[in-house]
Amino acid sequence: MKLFYLRVVCSPMDESVLRLMLKYLFIFLFIVLWQISFAQPVTEQLLNSNWQFRKVGDKEWLPATVPGTVHTDLLANKKIPDPFLETNEKDLQWIEDADWEYETAFSIDSTFFNQSFCEIEFSGLDTYAKVFLNNSLILNADNMFRWWKADCKKYLKIGENLLFIRFESAVMKAKVLAKQLPYTLPGDDKVFTRKAQYQFGWDWAPRFVTCGIWREVKLIAYPQVRIENIKIVADELSNSKAMISVHAEFSGKPSASEIHFSVYNKNDKRQRMLAETIINAAGHASLNFEIKNPQLWQCNGIGNPYLYEFVFEVSEETKNILDREEIKFGLRTIELVQENDSHGKSFYFKLNRNPVFMKGANWIPADNFLPRVSKGKYLELLVNAKEANMNMLRVWGGGVYEDDYFYSLCDSLGILVWQDFMFACAMYPGDSDFVKNVSEEVKDNIKRLRNHPCIALWCGNNEIDEGWKNWGWKEQLECLEKDSIKIYDDYKNLFRKIIPDIVKDVDSTRAYWESSPSIGWGHKESLEQGNSHYWGVWWGMEPFSAYEKKTGRFMSEYGFQGMPSLSTFRKFCGEKDLTLISDAVKNHQKHPAGYETIQKYLERDYKQPKDFESYIYVSQVMQAEGIKKAIEAHRMAKPRCMGTLYWQLNDCWPVTSWSSMDYYNKPKALQYAVKKAYTKYFICAEINDSNLVVNVISDDTTNVDAIFRIRLTDFTGNILWRDSGKVTPDRKGSAAFYPLLLEDMLRDISEYRVFFRMELLLNGKVVSENVRYFLKPKDLLFDKPQIQYSIASASPEIYSLTLFTNSLAKNVFLDFGDESISLSDNYFDLFPKEQKVILVFSDASVEALKEKIKIKSLVDSY
Ligand code: BMA
Q1: Ligand 1 atom nearest to 463, measured from its CA
Q2: Ligand 1 atom 10: the closest Cα is on which residue?
Q3: 797 phi and psi, to 5 degrees?
Q4: Continuous segment of H or E residues that includes residue 759
Q5: Which of 237, 340, 620, 625 is most buried per CB count within 10 Å?
Q6: Average pLDDT over residues 423-448
Q7: In 477-593, which ranges are continuous DSSP H helix?
Q8: Beta-carbon neighbour count of residue 483 at 10 Å?
């Protein structure tokens, strides 16, 4: 803005001078006001109110929620029963066949209207959507995962405007697209639609093919320029300095005048500018700056996930701010290391140049109706993951690229993310329209997510290469040779060329991995290189002990089902349905042979539970003990194996599944077991030939000195053998340090009534404890334990529950029957003649807790 000077000679102040002064003053004020209005920053108007919807052909409009889905809108209007209850899913399939319309009226004022640029932005449209503004078609969307934007300046008017969206049935549309191919693709018609694949039904998900405006909609107006996206890269990073480069793209007309782009660090009290530049005519700008002695972002268990808060500003010469964006950014390096070695080829991550053993789980969408996932739900699930000592989650490819909030939480909790692109267990089309659509989707999502330090890797898909090579698709579909060549060529084009090329171009800082897993679990090479999904246990019906042998280089999937808690069952079915053969309970199991598989494994290791409630409990205990075995094997195989992510952390509806937290965020026994199996320092034992070998594992970045305590005890607490001493777990791997000849140890001892207890101490504090039995649970001879307890207030809303037993109580289950109460541990073994203290988080009184508490153990289940 140029400044104007007024010079007035004021000697004899006559009327004409005064008039002239006023005239100039008027002109001056006009210019100032005009400049202020011109320099207005970007203004945004959320369009999430006044929406209504109806089925195409219906007359009646009903109120709708945006963001939302058609199913939840029908539910809110009481037009359908709750889709998650009983067997309602079956009766609600008609919704996916219909087309639906959404409409809202909104007003804009002249200030908004008079801006040079007006755009409408949809963060998510699900899926085939024609968008009309004041009866003009402004957008034709066909991908749920893309960010849709349309210029709407010429269609807007001052006052009321009408926004109308027509959603075409994704199922019907896919049918038409499928007919255009001369062959059938494995994975059904859903592969033609760029929409969350689990919504078409999965082995843990119901089928609800939704539609709707599933993420935010907003109108954006601005006078000149707007930040389109920013890419921050640490080109050089050491303890002494970080060299950072920033590349930004802008929309609007940056060449109209000199527009500045600058950055400062919000954490710096003096708010000094770190760098500044001028946006070029093509709408780009680059900045470089240095940070001395940077604080690194570290993952959970290793260090603090420090985040810098960079503020980017777009301004005119005079410092009128036109646009502004704050980005929390972590300084860290991440590498995927694959080197030939004596076992095959390594597969591990180096974070800040240190190899890190990844401990975590697979993440699926937290609801079938995604807009319902609240910030609170994300927070609770991810805090639980952190508290369970996880440092990595895999966002699985049959779901969605998650909400920004999910990644921000992972950034601040120090949880790395293995990010799949959204393709799973199917073959996808290869025509140019499809490839173009996918390319835009991939670009949109990498641009949206690349500044998050949590993202460790981009992975092409879930189980597609494995499926094509091992699952008999070609035979099932009687695929002609030429068609099969074409289908696989399309696969290679997408996952070996198109997507990796975009990754290289848009985010060269992370590795790309074609498919998870790289080799199917039936092949021995899957244990020698790449990442593995090991499903010999569960799908292959192999015993849990198979986990000890089938340890690959990085275990990205393995799992076993556990039923959700009784209170969760009660939420979707009536009391009479609480049996394994009721239709409601059967419908909340989506694996074709789910309950049969649980039963077969249960017969191998446990006594038959006496009732439905006990069945739930034993299924959870079995899941926890099975997966614990896998985790122990993976950790003992460090550094040959460098990661373990079990299937799966969460659920999208109340269901019997592989999850450790159910749909209502209720932890299963597995969640507690994982917390203990993922500790930084870990003690466990394996039986190797006729030896019992104790292992101590450390995930520290330096070597530590620890103390071990091991003992063989009978069920009433008599110590039959004991030892203790120093151990120095190596930071690189596990230390198998104590082989004990089992024959010697168990001579003259009844293995039906003994357990081997292990403790690891660091600076006098127990950092890991574990137990090993010598027989299956069904063969152990338990007494009926007498468990005593006391409850005392520890601090506001935290109680300490102290437990004591005269004889071993296996898998003690504390049940308060109250969802608001959470516990520091559950389903644990209570050892005889030792006190165990559990923290109870609740706002109830001691008396109320005493009234509610029920304590059971394995002997009570049969
Ligand atoms: C894995 C996943 C999912 C599936 C799970 C359990 O292979 O990739 O497709 O739900 O197994 O069967």
Answers
A1: 8
A2: 203
A3: 65, 15
A4: strand 754-762
A5: 620
A6: 98
A7: 481-493, 499-506, 546-549, 566-572, 583-587
A8: 17
Tokens standing for 268?
């710096």
Whether the pLDDT of residue 227 is over 50: the answer is yes
Asked if 493 and 434 touch (Cβ cutoff 8 Å), the reply is: no
Phi and psi angles of residue 19, each rounded to the nearest 5 degrees, phi first: -60, -40
How deeply is 160 buried, as exposed, middle or buried, from its count of CB atoms within 10 A (0-12, 13-18, 19+)? exposed
> In this structure, are residues 675 and 388 in contact, taking their beta carbons and an 8 Å threshold?
yes
CB 594 within 8 A of CB 204: no
For residue 15, the model assigns a pLDDT of 59
Q: Can you tell me the mean pLDDT for 432-453?
A: 98
Q: What is the DSSP secondary structure assignment for residue 425, as one 8-state letter?
A: S
Among 39, 22, 16, CA closest to 6: 22
Spatial separation of the C-alpha atoms in residues 737 and 694, rounded to whole Å: 6
CA of residue 425 to ligand 1 center, whole Å: 9
Its pTM surpasses 0.85: yes
| Per-residue confidence (pLDDT) for residue 31, from 0 to 100 | 44
Distance CA 322, CA 260 (A): 10
Instruction: Tell me the sheet residues that pair with 648.
Output: none
Q: How many CB atoms lie within 10 A of CB 364?
A: 25
- Which of these, 65, 194, 179, lies nearest to 127 by C-alpha position? 194
Q: What is the DSSP string of 784-821?
A: ---EEEEEEEEETTEEEEEEEESS-EEEEEEE-S-TT-
Q: How far is CA 78 from the centre of its chain?
A: 32
Q: Which two tokens stand for residue 574?
A: 């009536």
CA 535 from chain centre, in angstroms, equals 21
Q: Are the C-beta atoms of 618 and 860 separated by less than 8 Å?
A: no
* Contact status, residue 194 vs residue 438, Cβ threshold 8 Å: yes
Q: pLDDT tens, 536-578?
A: 999 999 999 999 999 999 999 999 999 999 999 999 999 999 9
- Residue 24's pLDDT is what? 60
What's the pLDDT score for residue 4?
30
Catalogue the active-site residues: 463
Q: Which atom of ligand 1 is nearest to the CA of 425?
A: 9
Ligand 1 in contact with 203 (CB < 6 A)?
A: yes
* Per-residue confidence band for 32, with pLDDT thresholds at 50, 70 and 90: very low
Residue closest via CA to ligand 1's atom 12 equals: 203
209, 117 in Cβ contact below 8 A?
Answer: no
SS3 353: coil
Distance separating alpha carbons of residues 131 and 570, to the nearest angstrom: 42
H or E stretch covering 222: strand 217-222
